[in-house]
Amino acid sequence: KPYRSPLLADARTIAQPFVSKCSNLNRIIIPFFLEENDNSGKIRFNLYQAGKQNEPVFFTDLDAAQFPAPVTIGTHSLRGVLYPVWMPPLPDSANNEFIWEIITHSAEPPRGIGVYLTDTPDAQLQPVLINGVKGTGSSAFFSYCQYRFDWDQIFKSTGQKLWREKYFIAAYLMLAGGIL
User: Would you call 144 helix, strand, or coil by DSSP?
Assistant: First the structure.
């Protein structure tokens, strides 16, 4: 069952390493819990590719005041916000390790906000890092990739499959034509 992380105002940094299983990674949905009705403060979202952690491949600032009202999420009757972070598609993201990181702005730390964590094991995830210290659970987040239709590749692979099956197709058509 998911549980709450420390509040972002106290934790300052929450980071989650993960492996993207598809190309064109373009969205990460983070499940935030909100304790107060008056949510405010700034949060910085950084996405790093493992081994290239000096510069994020994507970053954006999130304003907690812009979060929608909390609703029931998941099957555990938890209340919170599934907040999507959209980014330009990362074309070579398949099977690469990434780290998303949430950092609070010290000038405007968020109040009453944290991330839902889970102890459910997942081969794509490593334990969450809270203030650089490895925890026991991982974030209960979602990542999505944009599928791109490459018509040349689709026709090429379809043609190759038909060519490999040409004898079966010819025999089938002769049998079907002879029966009719």
Answer: strand
